Amino acid sequence: MDIFEIIRRPIFTEKAMNxxxxxxxxxxxxHPRANKVQIKKAFEECFKVKVDNVAVINIKPRLKRAGLHFxxxxxxxxxxxxxxxxxxxxxxxxx
Length: 95
Prior knowledge:
Blueprint: H1 3-6, E1 7-10, H2 14-23, E2 25-30, H3 36-47, E3 51-59, E4 63-66, E5 69-72, E6 76-83
Antiparallel strand pairs: 1-2, 2-6, 3-6, 4-5
């Protein structure tokens, strides 16, 4: 797997922003088959920062109702990446 396929997109929710500001953690969506070692290596190579820890969460699909029909949301995998002391990464500099 290529390192640019592993990290899909950053997740900007209120909880993710609180983790970033308070605990120096970044939340990203990753490839479903990527493991912690691959995620750490890809993140360090792409963004040139030192990673301390990687936590992985599999998000299961939920049922949603659309009129008379039920549909499912997409399943995905997200990673909470803890940066080492002194490291900083700002993914939304231009905004």
